Amino acid sequence: MGFGNVGKAFLRLLISKETEIRRRYDVRWRLTGVATRRNGWLADPDGLNPLAILNGRWPAQHHSLQAGNAREWLEHAKADVFFEASSLNVHTGQPAIDHIKTALELGAHAISVNKGPIVHALSELTALAREKGKKLLYEATVMDGVPIFSMFQLGLPATELRGFSGVLNSTTNVVLTEIERGRSFEEGVRRAQAIGVAESDPSADLDGWDAAVKVAVLAIVLMNVPLRLEQVRRTGIRELSEEKIRSVRTSGMRYKLVCRAERRGDGVDCSVQPELLLASDPLANLEGTSSALHFDLDVFGLSLVEHNPGCWRIFFAPFAASSPRFNACISPHTPASESPGRTAHREWGLRTANAVEQSPPIPAARSLLHRPALDRSEPSRKFPSAAISRCSWPSALSHSAAARLPSVPAKSFP
Ligand SMILES: NC(=O)c1ccc[n+]([C@@H]2O[C@H](COP(=O)([O-])OP(=O)(O)OC[C@H]3O[C@@H](n4cnc5c(N)ncnc54)[C@H](OP(=O)(O)O)[C@@H]3O)[C@@H](O)[C@H]2O)c1
Q: pTM for the full model?
């Protein structure tokens, strides 16, 4: 469902990795349906030609399917796995929520890169998936393919997440970087669209909605609070003038759209706003499409950085989300009985739990994990939009980021 940047990139990746995923995981796939607003709703249980569809050659429909009727479409496609990659509706999560419900009711696993259903209907969808004995996966909703939810679920038992901070929206990062380089706001937006990080309508990114929804997804899933999206304080980047963005850079600082969440009693205080960061702050070093998250856990601090992933981020995002067994590989201690890979499935051909245990870990996923000691002498601080943030990230990350990312000299930005 949805065949834009993500849907197309996912299909390309499935095609290019076909042999590898068959050899390593014994997973075979067949594309039996595609639906978009403009190209209509196609289904063929015998399989559509993925290359032809990628090249814009949509076959004539043999069976007349009514656009918007997800039940009829899924029944005709006989889908084992349903991928939801349609546009984000921040306010209701619809129609994606209804589409996922229908897929689960019809006995398909559901995998969403769309954050709307997770923010607005996670408990309902989880309960339905459990009742139907199917998986609901959403790993790619935040930071693309970085295995955040799997990491907490499989690798961090009995930890308490006290809060997190980070930069999670690529479009605003690209736009701010382009403005620093002397381009206009509109040129920055066009650049973000050209490299495929901005959706056709970029308002959700520029007004902070996308980042706010990600904060809400993280807080709901990882901090287990019934947060509503309106409870995330949100300011986008439209109010920042181009002159201001360039002038602070010459003084050794940068604006970033920073996300924060902090547990307060039974609730969580969440915000998304532009913050003025010193060059020494690791978040200030994030260029282009990079994103970063620091988790403040009761046992240690944990930081994840996705380094300028380029087009591979959207290639990998739904791929990671669709691979419960890849996620299972990240924790070598996953009990076989809990492994999603146990579910034998027709065309999807998942192997046995034994195979899951023998599968090698994914080096790329492992290398994303840093576990520096949290610098307790430098407590997290919140800053209003025009304040200067002191570095509240662990110094170890600071060194690692400095070594791997383009440095931002204190006073002479290019
Ligand atoms: N881009 C990223 O890097 C990224 C990363 C992670 C997650 N996501 C999430 O992934 C989703 C897709 O992003 P994208 O960049 O691929 O967006 P996009 O390029 O704008 O594509 C959206 C697709 O959804 C289709 N669509 C929208 N509403 C629909 C409906 N009611 N029924 C059927 N199809 C519908 C559109 O159809 P038409 O083509 O006919 O308009 C289009 O094919 C979003 O929820 C986004 O937040 C994106």
A: 0.79
